[in-house]
Amino acid sequence: MQPNIQLGTGGSSNSSAAPGAVQEQQYGASMITESHSGAHCSEMQEIQRDKLKEPCRAEDLPQHTVGAYEAKIRTTPEPKSDYGGGLAQVQHVVLVLSGKGGVGKSTMTTELALALLHAGKKVGILDVDLCGPSIPRMLSVGRPEVHQCDSGWVPVYTDASKSLALMSIGFLLENPDDAVVWRGPKKTALIGQFVSDVAWGELDYLLVDTPPGTSDEHLAVVENLRKHKVDGAILVTTPQVLQAVSTGDVRREITFCKKIGLRILGIVENMSGFVCPHCSIFEFAAQLLKHTMPVDLSDVEPEVHCVFCCVPLDPQLSTSVEQGEDFIKAFPESATFSAISNIAQAVLTSIENA
């Protein structure tokens, strides 16, 4: 019989609460501070005041929804291994953020991981997009059981050399079509377990794929990574017919990073043009669509312009992602390969020279 995921909230709980109730995560107001004054930000104070009026009971949820929370963890421990628990042996941690959905953030995370892998690095991907875990499909790893060793959960490896590791809620659901209908505290608790209980072992880079926006998942990641060195974040956006839309999304992410003291490694403008699959000619979006404009952040502080790369809309990349193939290996001559490789090299240079 498969056990449930054990979700500890990490905060003080009310012992008188009814069984099955979801306990509220106790956030510290110091999680996010203003970078200069040190004053507590109003958003965090608002979260502290926003307590659940009534507990969310498992029996109140639809039965098919409750079934989605069953874990696929093999309880028989693996033999004693060299896996290191948590992030103790992870050298660098990078968050991948976006202000809205549909910009190709998970695709960029996957391709950046593959580019780093082909550069000789040992890489891990932590997928905390709990409501839309797509990276297992992009890497064609299926839905294997998650094993336990003496150091914690063993991530799923995509290759025999164990150079690319992945952990995602997609591996833990009994039915991949079930929606994850969780309130913030339960999401926060699982992210805490992903950070502390996954035996990543030795990694050069851990990429954290986050959901769009700036909400519970992002705060949970930042809070759980406080004792580890996070090297920075990559922001992903797209060009828009209404330039203010994409620019506004990026500005909000920049503000979020400033409030939590997270260094911005750079910005990736995805789908910024089109690569013809027949002639490999790369045309920018502004050349294809008269009213489409690139993201303009010329008045933003110069430190966020460490990396600003344009990645085209490439049918070959789309096909590779859908079929779980390694685009970086299959199309080394494409303009998209060049763009992604440039991002990876810029990230390596920025982090290792910091």
TrEMBL record:
Entry-linked InterPro entries: Mrp-like_CS (IPR000808), Mrp/NBP35_ATP-bd (IPR019591), P-loop_NTPase (IPR027417), YlxH/NBP35 (IPR033756)
Primary subcellular site in the record, as a coarse category: cytoplasm
Keyword Iron found: yes
Keyword vocabulary terms for this entry: 4Fe-4S, ATP-binding, Cytoplasm, Iron, Iron-sulfur, Metal-binding, Nucleotide-binding
Top-level taxon in the UniProt lineage: Eukaryota
Localization per Swiss-Prot or TrEMBL: Cytoplasm, Cytoskeleton, Cilium axoneme; Cytoplasm, Cytoskeleton, Microtubule organizing center, Centrosome, Centriole
Subunit architecture: Heterotetramer of 2 NUBP1 and 2 NUBP2 chains. Interacts with KIFC1. Interacts with NUBP1.
Protein name as catalogued: Cytosolic Fe-S cluster assembly factor NUBP2 homolog
Organism whose genome encodes this protein: Albula glossodonta (roundjaw bonefish)
